[in-house]
Write a structure and sequence with these properties.
This protein is α+β, with helices and mostly antiparallel strands. The chain has a single domain, classed as glutathione-dependent formaldehyde- activating enzyme (gfa) (Alpha-Beta Complex). The chain is built from two helices and eight strands, in the order E-E-E-H-E-E-E-E-E-H. The strands form three sheets. Strands 7-4-3-8 form a four-stranded mixed sheet. Strands 1-2 form a two-stranded antiparallel sheet. Strands 5-6 form a two-stranded antiparallel sheet. The structure holds zinc ion (2 copies). One zinc ion binds next to loops.
Amino acid sequence: MPSEAALTGRCYCGDVRLKLATPPLTTAYCHCSDCKRWTGSPLPAFAAFPRHAVDTSQFPAPGFSTKAGVERWICPRCGSPLAATFDYLPDQIYVPVGILDDAASLSPELHCHADQALPWLCLSDELPRSSSSGRDLLNEAGATDG
Ligand SMILES: [Zn+2]
Ligand SMILES: [Zn+2]
């Protein structure tokens, strides 16, 4: 885990800048079809932060989602995904690792929806794999936050 130093990030165009007040609770891959479509990535990864650590007042309001209980924000100018919240992961907010400046230090600790992994992905890690949302492990990570 990174130190107390604030993490920073930005969208593709730079109009939206992120400054995270705390280190992530955990970082996880998500193989679900929603996250793949939202990010355009075959394997999105997200850093989970306490909800208060991300200032969403800079984001276009409201967020958008095709599913109840989910809110997703994008940059209104360039369309970069910025963050998402999920009702089943209370008090947490998920930021795509790829928009964070220090992504190299944020190695994922879990695969969520591993049963939806693309068949040609070749992954050799031994990380835990959840066939569903991984909410138990993710909520646990939030609960053990310092
Ligand atoms: Zn942008
Ligand atoms: Zn997902």
